[in-house]
Write a structure and sequence with these properties.
Order of helices and strands: HHHEHHEEHEEHHEE
Strand content: 15-25%
CATH topology of one domain: Heat Shock Protein 90
Strand order of the largest sheet: 2-4-5-7-6
CATH architecture of one domain: 2-Layer Sandwich
Number of helices: 8
Length: about 300
Amino acid sequence: MTTLIIIVLCIFVFILSSVLGLILVDLQHITTDLVYINTHTTNAGVTSNLHFGLIQHLTVTMNQTLQKTRHLQQTEYQREHHLEQMLLNLTHDIKTPLTVATGYVQLIQRQPTTATTTNLQRVLNNLASVNYYLRYLMDFNLVRTKANHLNLESINVSHFLEQELFGLFDELTAKHITVTPQIAPNITLTTDQLLLQRIIQNLVGNWLKYAKNSAIVSLRFLDEQHICLEFQNETTVTATQKEVTTKQFYTTDDHSTQSLGLGLNIVQSLVTTLGGKLMLQTDSQSFTVRLTFRTTPPID
């Protein structure tokens, strides 16, 4: 009887040792796969030679983690590529009017009689274009620096929006744009004040360039967790596609030196950095930019 028990135990130990050996070999195989994946650019996944439940579950979980990591890397790459392309385009569009303005100034220095009203106005126009693109270059850098370092604080958006509109009142009046505010009182938002300010200033800046006669700004709750900030204006601009108007450097006039798409592209980047969403709505007479934000950051 004792001998039989010993034989059974030996068989059990042998089987257990064999299974353990196979598991260790498979774990080594998984480790080799991970080392290869971490040292090469590949879409390969972790594989297992065993059909053992726990090992299979481990490989599936590892592959899911690898897929999420690759997706995050791809998203970050696309974001960096997007920002680099914006920088390249901005520097190019700064250089062009600056070169033209410099050329006119050099001409005037050589021939003072060429300092006509027309030529001086051309210099001013090109310098204004330089200033326009420099402002968006600053916003571009703001997006880069703020992407991972937001200064979140609770802001009374109702009061903040009214202050920003009041500060731009003279410019809007000079353009004969009548603004109708529809701002619900005491709406607060946990956000970065500087980015929010640049969003508002950019959208009002679009009014100054493209609005006709009247504009409406509204702020309201969508539900307990979301607010809607909307800028609407009458316009003669014929832009009917969201994909067109948010495209970088899209212009509404073949002779325009400034771009509707550039401003909206910057706004879209700023809004995304704050975790919000931007939606455009256009027709033959009006243009609407609708922004949606969470009142507080989502809980991880």
